[in-house]
Design goal:
The chain is of the alpha/beta class and 555 residues long. The chain is built from 21 helices and 15 strands.
């Protein structure tokens, strides 16, 4: 033990820290306070076993936050291990069409980013003096051969539903491949099939790796970003199967905030979250005003570090001319999601996927010339971190070459303000977009056909089947706004979502779009009592406390 601690101390003492400005990570404080950090590492040796399963060393958001969490948990007495991929996965979340074409990807056993990814992760993590584990150390050559055989021979049509020892490796493999192609559907070409099989092999390697790591190291808790795609979705599946407690997180919309969830990705937990977590909030005018002020800022993204509008225009006359909509007649707005994003199974969906919902809805409105349908394509199709390579506009035009006058398509690059459009709509149709929270808070009725988080909250019309959806559409135009009681519930939920579920970590700073940096001057800043948001997160990870920030106490 003494020899190991001496090596840790030497590593920290020799650390040069990281450059300032756009690479200003927080571990400089470890260099300045090596003795205090060494004592914390030693004390934590007998603490609860936590795996920080970052996996992707070049995922900058992940390494920044998870390295900070690893240190904060160590100071609180947890024995933390860090997990990174060492070029072991043939495809992953960082494998994108823009950095590796299919030809480049299929011509080599690893990916073009593997070496730089491994270097980036080890460069930061090895400074901590916390054990760093690598994917390849948990698999044997025989297991690798078994995985390769499975990935080559499973029929392509069976991959989506394929499970290995109860783990849905196929679902996450397909979701990962769709993300790579930035498409919502695949045509089944030989190249696409080969890429899907690479993701399947990566999924299986992840499953075997995590199974081996848990068996060997006896982890009690695993924390990692996203909770879907490859490898994070598989990590979650294996941990749940082996009774390792799961914590996932994502960057939230508001600046300096993050969403954490127990047991599963927030894509699922925000749907299953007990209504009791927020419905009994002591609501007052001050909280409502704070909520509305923030929601108003979202029209231009001034309070956020993730937004997709550029310079939205809200003048109704201009919107009418731009879109051909006549606001003297009923307008029903339809808000889409990014086609390829989070292609997972949700039991409450009325339709199998978003395109199925769009087609069903358009077929209905073709028969309702008394209503105008405005289909607002999500701006993130062109302004997101991964631009879509299967534009919904093209899919709609392919299926409906001659649209009737009462259906208008608003493309993703349009400067039409989604908020101005929905404000003037009789109702808003949504599948999974979070905009349903804002629409409802403005008093407009939302009709939910997918996994939108407002489902079941008491202020939307929710459909669980095509028949239920049709019955709701038959009531259009609604000619109503939310009742006073429903509006209060909607705004209370908006406050809960944007201020309580989005946990502030003010020391995480934006340095570019979708990139962060951490700045912690003193090691003691990572301990209890300095940052309330960090306390909420660490208490949630170590003691399964709710990941709910008591923002109402700040008002």
């Amino acid at each position: 033990m003494r020899h190991m601690l001496h090596k840790i101390k030497k590593r920290i003492k020799n650390s040069l820290g990281l450059a300032q400005h756009n690479r200003a990570y927080w571990p400089q404080c470890l260099k300045d306070q090596a003795d205090e950090w060494l004592a914390a590492v030693a004390t934590a040796q007998s603490g609860p076993r936590v795996l920080m399963a970052t996996s992707l060393g070049a995922f900058q958001q992940g390494t920044v936050l998870e390295s900070i969490l690893a240190a904060a948990l160590t100071i609180r007495g947890a024995k933390v291990d860090l997990l990174l991929c060492d070029g072991f996965l043939p495809a992953c979340q960082l494998t994108e069409f823009g950095n590796a074409t299919p030809e480049e990807l299929l011509s080599r056993p690893d990916t073009p980013r593997c070496k730089s990814c491994q270097t980036a992760g080890s460069h930061l993590y090895e400074r901590l003096g916390i054990p760093l584990k690598w994917y390849s150390q948990f698999l044997t050559p025989d297991q690798i051969r078994e995985i390769s055989q499975l990935a080559r021979t499973i029929p392509f049509e069976d991959i989506k539903t394929y499970t290995w020892e109860g783990i849905a490796v196929g679902e996450h493999a397909l979701a990962g491949a769709l993300r790579y192609f930035a498409r919502g559907t695949l045509d089944g070409t030989p190249t696409e099939i080969a890429i899907v099989r690479r993701y399947l092999e990566a999924s299986l390697r992840t499953a075997f790796t995590l199974q081996g790591a848990i068996n060997q190291e006896k982890y009690e808790i695993a924390c990692f970003h996203h909770g879907i795609y490859v490898p994070q979705g598989i990590i979650g599946e294996v941990c749940r199967k082996t009774q390792v407690r799961v914590i996932t997180w994502n960057p939230a919309y508001r600046k300096h905030t993050f969403i954490f969830s127990h047991d599963d990705s927030y894509h699922h937990t925000m749907l299953s979250e007990p209504i009791e977590d927020w419905i009994n909030l002591p609501w007052n005018d001050e909280l409502e005003a704070r909520t509305l002020e923030y929601l108003d800022s979202r029209r231009v993204g001034s309070g956020d570090w993730i937004w997709f509008h550029d310079t939205p225009r809200e003048e109704l006359d201009w919107i009418g001319e731009e879109t051909g909509l006549d606001f003297s007649r009923p307008v029903i707005s339809m808000l889409t999601n990014v086609f390829w994003d989070a292609q997972l199974h949700f039991e409450t969906n009325a339709f199998g996927n978003m395109l199925e919902w769009i087609v069903y809805t358009m077929d209905y409105f073709i028969k309702r010339p008394d209503l105008q349908l405005a289909i607002r394509i999500h701006p993130a199709e062109v302004r997101g971190s991964i631009p879509s390579r299967q534009p919904l506009v093209d899919e709609i035009n392919r299926l409906y070459p001659d649209l009737p006058d009462n259906i208008r398509i608003i493309p993703p690059e349009s400067q039409v303000s989604t908020y101005a459009l929905t404000d003037c709509s009789d109702a808003v149709l949504i599948f999974g977009t979070k905009t349903g929270i804002e629409v409802s808070s403005a008093g407009v009725r939302a009709i939910v056909a997918g996994e939108a988080w407002i489902r079941g909250k008491g202020f939307s019309y929710d459909a669980a089947s095509p028949d239920e959806y049709t019955q709701i559409l038959e009531r259009l135009p609604l000619n109503e706004r939310l009742s006073t009681e429903e509006l209060a519930i909607a705004r209370k939920y908006a406050f809960h979502f944007f201020f309580r579920r989005m946990i502030p970590l003010p020391f995480i700073k934006p340095i570019a779009k979708f990139k962060f940096a951490g700045a912690i001057p003193q090691l003691s800043d990572l301990g209890p009592g300095r940052y309330p948001g960090l306390d909420v997160i660490c208490d949630g990870i170590l003691h399964r406390q709710p990941f709910i920030y008591p923002a109402e106490r700040e008002a």
